[in-house]
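Batch job 17 of 40 flagged for manual review because the log was empty.
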Amino acid sequence: MVALLGISGSLRRESFNTKLLREASRAFGECHFAMADLNLPLFNEDLEAEGVPDKVALLMAQIEAADGLVISTPEYNKAPSGALKNAFDWISRKRPMPTAGKPTVILSAAAGIAGGQRSQAILHLMLQAFDLRYSVNPEFFMGQAFSKFGEDGRITDEKTFEFLQGKMAGLREMIG
């Protein structure tokens, strides 16, 4: 069974991006889906010299074990979150790079109408060094995310979910 790892740039319990990742898993279809925990210590070479923290080592192992990654970024002050940047700062220290060649989908959800477009654009630049395999088209931005989920955490708009299914079908094709 295909193993997907969801990486949410938001640490908030009721995060739109975490909900979007769960819905992306549902849109993908049958798979083993796990969520990464980005509540990590701040990257610091002094801390790294003492040994990679257990939560960071777990994240790296999850990435290595996954067949594909689904990353969803909020937009904090027109950029990805510090939690997401910090996680990739830690990931960059592992050799060989656990992300190399990994099929990946990037999504974003935000309260604003643009749905995290700026954040996602910056994230693409940030991730260039990680040798991920992804297609930027079609892009998936969920604007006004506060109105897109029901109380059960599912996307309420059928067209939005169908578009997400198409995006996830592309990931399935990349995985093979």
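Reviewer: the log was empty due to a logging misconfiguration, but the result itself is present. The chain has a mean pLDDT of 95. Unflagging and moving on to job 18.
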